[in-house]
Amino acid sequence: MTKRVIPVVDLSQFTEGDAAARKAFVAELGKAFHEIGFVGVTNHGIPKSLIDNFYEASHQFFALETAVKEKYEIPGMAGQRGYTSFGKEHAKQSKVADLKEFFQLGQEVADGHPEKAAYPDNVHVEEVPEFTNLGISLYRAFEKAGGALLRAIAIHLDLGENYFDDKIEEGNSILRAIHYPPITQEPASAIRAEQHEDINLITLLVGASAGGLQLLNKEGEWLPITPGENEIVINVGDMLQRLTNNYLKSTTHRVVNPPREEWHLPRLSIPFFLHPKSDMDLSCLDRCVTADNPLQYEPITAGEYLDERLREIGLKK
């Protein structure tokens, strides 16, 4: 039995509980973020069947021939829709590409919507017709769970429960299916995903098909993250760190290569990067700037910050 590294909270305590249960949930969530930066969440409302079906469709997509997958790689899109081939993305401090390929789905709005130009259509895969539609359904379920978590975070920050609601409604979130293929030769120096922090407000991750995810704790130790059955894993991203002037810290994490005897096993994981609308102001909250914690960041919008980071990780030229 692997020892649990991250605490676990029950989201239904917040979404369906009485005032005392909600208060306890907010306290537990805040404590987890301050102490270790990651938390497992049960009773999150995302149907297991939907997760399983999207995993299966993702397996089918990544099993396609490379030339077929590359039809879905859209030039000039910085990977924000469709396929990104193996070896394109690297951590911002690294020059070595991660050992992965991925497919991204984003926000959808109706034709004629004022933000339509900001949200390109999602890419549909002829060979696996259910893949994109399942992904969009999973995206909506993640938006709902993420919205509830951000309401708890807003209470923790004393901002009022609904602080984030209008900022994330029709926000620029991304659902990413990541495939780490079998490792066929000794990697020069690359690991499946080099240490990094996420760009967004919070990340919601449904269980990966194999281990390897690790977080860096405050003592500088790398610890394995092994979620339980039907649990999603949540971590703070850089946008929330900026907004709170480092009061809530973005946690460094990575995906290490498996032991050599498991090199033949691929790994699939499905993170949901919860982003606000691009015009959200990420200027540090006044309440988070104090004599002990002076202002750490220049004002920036979420869209400007995303653009800067996509260039740093090699997706945008």
UniProtKB/TrEMBL annotation:
It catalyses: L-arginine + 2-oxoglutarate + O2 = guanidine + L-glutamate 5-semialdehyde + succinate + CO2; 2-oxoglutarate + O2 + 2 H(+) = ethene + 3 CO2 + H2O. GO terms for molecular function: 2-oxoglutarate oxygenase/decarboxylase (ethylene-forming) activity; metal ion binding. It holds the Pfam family DIOX_N. GO terms for biological process: ethylene biosynthetic process. Signal peptide: none annotated. Its EC number is 1.13.12.19, 1.14.20.7. It is an enzyme of class 1 (oxidoreductase). Residues 170-276 form the Fe2OG dioxygenase domain. Keywords: Ethylene biosynthesis, Iron, Metal-binding, Oxidoreductase. It comes from the Bacteria. Pathway: Alkene biosynthesis; ethylene biosynthesis via 2-oxoglutarate. Belongs to the iron/ascorbate-dependent oxidoreductase family. This is 2-oxoglutarate-dependent ethylene/succinate-forming enzyme. The lineage of its organism: Bacteria, Pseudomonadati, Bacteroidota, Saprospiria, Saprospirales.
